[in-house]
Amino acid sequence: MYKPTSRYVNGWEICTVKNSAERNGKARNAKALVLLAAPMTGTALVNMGMSITDTVMMGWLGPTSLAAGAVVSATALFQLARLYLRKEALLGG
Length: 93
Fold this sequence. Notes:
Elements: E1 3-9, E2 12-18, H1 20-61, H2 63-91
Antiparallel strand pairs: 1-2
Helix pairs in contact: 1-2
């Protein structure tokens, strides 16, 4: 099932292989990529949903509460990132 095809582009020979093993490898890589990306995508969607809910709830309290909530949210995220990076630097990975 090995059928190499070659063609010339600007004087360079380009060879492509079309066989079932190559297609299966691409499908396996795509499956692995989806399995790695799914938890991160889910986490991002949950975080976005929580942010939207927080914004709606604080919006009912008024603009001052909404601004305070935005500042606290940004500060908390920065502090969590800083703690994580410090832990990684202290433990060496």
